[in-house]
Amino acid sequence: MTKFYLKTNSKTAETKKPHFYILNKGMNSGKPLKEPCPNCFVLTANTEEELQSLYWLCFGLWKAKSFHYYLKGSVIPFITINDMRKAIAGGYEIAEENKPVFQKSVKVLQLLEDKEKQYHQNIQLIQDAKRAIFYRYISRRRK
Prior knowledge:
alpha+beta; 2 domains; DUF6943
């Protein structure tokens, strides 16, 4: 089993090892993040390869809403650091049992994420084009 370190993120703490952040409050608890936010944990791995494996494991667990089981609190739900460790360790054990299937799933997830980013960029371009067309119409009316 891979060794990973999970701790509460601090603004003053800096880490040189490969790391990513995990949201710990709200209904998106467990969502892996590239940049820190006020309510997050930081997961540190020994190698970049382990980090990528853990990142996509967390992403899959988050998308499957596996962290919802561990949420506590009635107004603002949150996940404790021990529950997060338990969920990630359990997911990693399952992934290690069937590593080729997990790696194939990760590749598919990466491709789908890339496609989603492309679609968001295309939608943004379409919105910009609509705005430009309407702006051109308005600027003619003012003259």
